[in-house]
Amino acid sequence: MGKVKITQDHDACIGCGACAAICPDNWEMKDDGKAHPKQTELDDVGCNQQAADSCPVNCIHVEKEE
Ligand code: SF4
């Protein structure tokens, strides 16, 4: 089974909180007012695709490594 790699263009994050609301399993808001992924290498995409799709500035990227 392939791994899933999560990347975020942290500078582009506007801190809207959508990803943390939709995918609290892997996204949390921190003191800098921006979202941070809890893990960036996962066995399963889980809710991260929804988080990426919900991001208004498209700064979350989900890559599947075969
Ligand atoms: S949805 Fe995008 S812009 Fe909003 S907090 Fe998450 S990473 Fe930042």
Search tags:
single chain, 66 residues, alpha+beta, Alpha-Beta Plaits, 3-stranded antiparallel β-sheet, two-stranded antiparallel sheet, 5 strands, 18% helix, globular, binds iron/sulfur cluster
Q: Mean pLDDT, nearest integer? A: 96
Q: How much strand content do the residues show?
A: 25-35%
CATH topology assignment: Alpha-Beta Plaits
- Major sheet strand order: 4-1-5
Query: Helix share of residues?
Result: 10-25%
Quickly give the structural class: alpha+beta
Number of domains: 1
Question: Which regions contain 5 or more consecutive residues with pLDDT less than 50?
Answer: none
Which of globular, elongated, flat, extended, rod-shaped describes the shape?
A: globular
Structure description:
With 66 residues, this protein is α+β, with helices and mostly antiparallel strands. It has one domain (3-65): Alpha-Beta Plaits, CATH 3.30.70. Helix content is 18%, strand content 30%. The chain is built from two helices and five strands; from the N terminus they run E-H-E-E-E-H-E. The strands form two sheets. A three-stranded antiparallel β-sheet has the order 4-1-5, covered by helices on one side. Strands 2-3 form a two-stranded antiparallel ribbon. The mean pLDDT is 96. Iron/sulfur cluster is lined by residues 8, 13-19, 34-35, 54-57, 59-60.
Topology:
Blueprint: E1 3-8, H1 18-22, E2 27-29, E3 35-37, E4 41-42, H2 48-54, E5 60-65
Antiparallel strand pairs: 1-4, 1-5, 2-3
Iron/sulfur cluster is lined by residues 8, 13-19, 34-35, 54-57, 59-60.
